Amino acid sequence: MFTAVFYLPRERHNMTKRIAQLTGMQKFTLIWFGQMLSQFGTATTRFSLMIWAYQQTGQATPLALLGFFSYILFILVSPVAGVLVDRLDRRLVMILGDFGAALMTLFLLILYMGGGLQIWHLYVAEALTGAFEAFQMPAYSASISTLVPKKQYARVSGMRSFAEAAAQVIAPALAARLLSAFGLNVVMMIDLISFSLAVLPLLFISLPRVAQNVTENAPRKHILSDLATGFRYIKERQGLLGMMLIYFGINLTASLTYFAILAPMVLARTGGDEIALGNVQAALGVGGIIGGVLMSVWGGPKRRVHGIYLIGAFSFLAGDFLMAVGRTPEVWMFAILFATIFVPIIVGSKQTIWQSKVPPELQGRVFAARGAVEMLAMPIGYLAAGPLADKLLEPAMQSGGALAGIFGGLLGTGPGAGMAFMFLCTSIAGTVICLSGYLFPKVRNIEKDLPDHTLDGLPTAT
Question: Please, what are the domains in the chain?
Answer without folding.
Answer: 11-207+230-449 (1.20.1250.20)
